[in-house]
Every structure is written in structure tokens, then in C-alpha cells.
Design goal:
The complex is a heterodimer of chains A (413) and B (105). Chain A is α/β, with parallel strands linked by helices and 413 residues long. Chain A is built from eleven helices and 26 strands. The relative contact order of chain A is 0.12. In chain B, the strands form three sheets. In chain B, strands 2-3-4-9 form a four-stranded antiparallel sheet, with no helix packed on it. Classes of the chains: A alpha/beta (413), B mainly beta (105).
Amino acid sequence: MNETTRHIVIVGAGHAGGVAAATLRQTGFAGAITLIGSEAHPPHERPPLSKELLAGAIPVEKTYLRPAAFYSDNNIDFHPGETATAIDRTAQRITLASGGAIPYDNLLLTTGARARRLSLPGADHKRVLYLRDITDSLALREHLNTGVRVAVIGAGFIGLEAAAAARKRGATVTVLEVQREPLQRVCPPEIGEFMAALHRRNGVDLRTAISITAIVEADGALALRTADGSAVTADIVLAGIGAQPNVELAQAAGLAVDNGVVTDEFGRTSDPHIFAAGDVTRHFNPLLGRKVRLEAWQNAQNQAIAVAKIMAGGNQPYAEVPWFWSDQYDVNLQIAGAPEHWGQLIWRGGPNDKTFTVFAVHDGVPIAAITMNNGRDMRPARELITRRRPVDPTRLADFAVKLQDLAKEVGRG
Amino acid sequence: MADDNWVTVAKRSAINPGDVLGVTIGEREFALYNLDGEIHATDNLCTHAYALLSQGWLDGEVIECPLHGGRFDIKTGKALCPPVTEDLKTYKVRVVGDDVQIQPG
């Protein structure tokens, strides 16, 4: 290990930060590692926070990446409940909210993202809740009981998963979405409609193309006023309207920031001693040929592994087809790819089937795929997308042709 | 181990080479694999989240979880990559006639 990488400081002890610290040790990095996180919990996975943890099906500890003792056992100096307030790039040190400073040779920013806040009259009411971290999940769960009226603003992954968990706990759920279909940011309309029907079958009052103008407390309840003059009454409101990256530390230090900390495919920022990984990054993806910011398990996990290996002296870029999943009721939805436009869709099965897979194709080349209760297709689908080669659309739509065989053929082509 | 610990869980002819079959015995879920003619058995629930491995991707002697991509060695149950950290339980298997039997313990 060379002299300049004796001490790696990781700011942000969420999923990416925890994975990076563990990877550094597994890769044989022998220098000092300091891991700083503002939460009280050790690094954990976020997917269960809007699913199993929210529904009350698992204890908090089940979300932890590793037991809390892992960090001391592996000589990782972990500071929970601590916040970095500034980066002094010249002196190469960070300052802490509790006072004091920590010097670094190389710094990794894994500061993640936070829930975007509602901006409308009444949004500051204490029963307007958000869902991002363990504390949020447990606080929301306290309210999710039989007969409680929950209004969810936003039919993205978080809103829909929370709606499913709330139904599981017997709450009465209304979901309000400004777009015409749910999940419009990540799915084609056909899939949004499928998910809308799923929620309605499960007793959710899902209203689309509706916008909220104000939240007013009346007789102990919350009234959500809408632009079309209607109103929704609820006991609590959950706003699931997206996330924004925690870039303030990087921005104040003068690093390149553009809807995320800008990095290359190696996680390098505009400062050679500072790297970034996870939700906070807007990183170059060589497979897509453009920069992306992703809020997903895969990116938190695998980009953190890749960047930690780079920091330990490796040279392999992070280059994967983006991959997302969601579990709602008895449905597992997976998405590979992050197309800006869905374009032509090729279906293997369809919305009336129990399981199906759909590809988005541009100029004959599969650029994205969605599986519905059909995770087995996801592996070959990702391979097909990674190849970036044309596929015969007739064969792609033909159930008799196995996707894994198609992936092998295209690989040889 | 006494003979009566063996439980018939499936028909041998129902599991083709390179296939994985999920079976429910009582409240327990098992996955049965045919690796080049040899039957192996593990728990069917992924150790990471609620997912049936029998709906996953069989890659040589490795089963990949259909939900989150965790991978296990079928013969040893060893967890091979994130997000799985906990090994999978494996079971002894014998084939009697066309009956696949395991010792669920």
C-alpha cells in the first residue's frame, strides 16, 4: 500500500459506506479506515424499510449489512451518530458536528440522498411523514393500524410499497399521483397500469392525474385539497415524491456537483483524493454512454464495491446495466436498464398473465427489460442488454425460444 | 440415523437434469436440484429475503436467487456473494425407486 492511502475516511454509513468499508478490508487494504454516519444504526439495506420492516415482519437488526461488532472486529473506526460538516481539501481533513477534525489521505463520500420535501401549505404538519431511513420507517409503522386512513402522495416505488405495507396492516389507503399512471419515471405506461390495477384489487383508492394544493387540519383529521376541487381526508399523510442527493458537503468544498456528486466510472470526483459512491453520485456509466444518478440497492452495493477496489489500488470501472426491484403484495417487479424513452415494447406474455417479461428495443437492440413475477428471466435479460447487439424481435417474443439460449446466440454473434 | 427420518418429497422423474423443483412439506419449503443426474436438496427460502430459490437461476452447481441475485453453492449451501451472508441449509438425499427422499431433521 502506498503512503498516500494510509487513511481512508468514509463519510456516510448507509449501504454504500458500509459495503465500501467491508470491501476495503476484504481487498486487503491494511491502512486505517474511519466510517462516519449520522444515523444511530450500523450500515443497513434500505429495501426492507418500505416493505418487511414497515409491515412489521422483521426486526430492525435484519436490515443491518453486518452485526455492529463487525466494524471493530475488522479494525474499522465506526462513528455512528456523527455528522461531517465540512471538507478542507487543502489540509485534507473533515470537520465534525461534535467538534474536532479527522485527517484523510483519501476520502469517500457515500452521503446518499434524502426524501424530497413537499412544498405546499400545511406540508409542515407533524402527521405529514416521509420514508427514507429506519427512524422514518418505524415512526410510520406506529401509525399503520387497522382502520387508520393513510393518504400517500406519489405513486413511485416508495409510495406504492408503503401503500402495500399499510394495506397489510389493515389501514385504509388512498394514493394520489400527479401523473396519469404510477411509476412513470421508471416504467412504460402499460406497466404503470398493471401496478395500478394490482393496488386497486388490494383495496387501495388510487387516483391519478391529481395534484394536491394544500393540507389542512380539520376536526383532528387532515384534509388534502386537490386542484380539481375534490378533497381527501386522512389521519396521516406519507409523501413519497422522490429523493434528492446529499451534495451539500461536496458542493461547499467546491467539488463538481450536478444533480449529484459528479464522478467518472471509477468513482473519482474532481479532486484526486476524493471519491464518491452510491445514491449521491451522478456517475458515468460506460454501458449507457452517459451519466446517471441511481437510487437503488444495486448501485449502493456494487458501485461501492467497485470504488472501494479502485481506492485500494484496483483499475476496474463500475459498468453494469442498472437494475431495480420492487415487492408489492404478491408481485415481484424487476427492471433492468434505465431508458430515457421506452420506445418499442416486445412482450413475452402480457398483463393478463401471472408472469411476464417485456423488453424495450431501440433499432432492434434490447435496452431495457421488465419482469413481473418472473425473476428467472432477469439474468439472461441483463445479459442481452449488456451485449448491445440486435436481436430478432420475432424470436425475442417467442416463448418457445428460451432467453438464455438467445443470450448465448447473441453472445456468439 | 433411523430409517423413518427419511421423508418422500418428490418423484425423481419430475426433476429433469439442470432443473430445480420447489416442494412444500408441512410448513417447510425445500428446493430439489438435478445436477447431471444427481439430486441435491436445500432450503428453498433464500437466507436474505423472502424468495423461493426454485424460481431462481440454476448456473452449474450454483443457484442464484430470483429476487436479489444472491448466489449459493448447492452442494455445500455456502453463500457466495452479496447480498447473501448466511449459508443455506442442505439436506441428505436418497432416491428409492422413483421417490426422492430427504432427511428434513
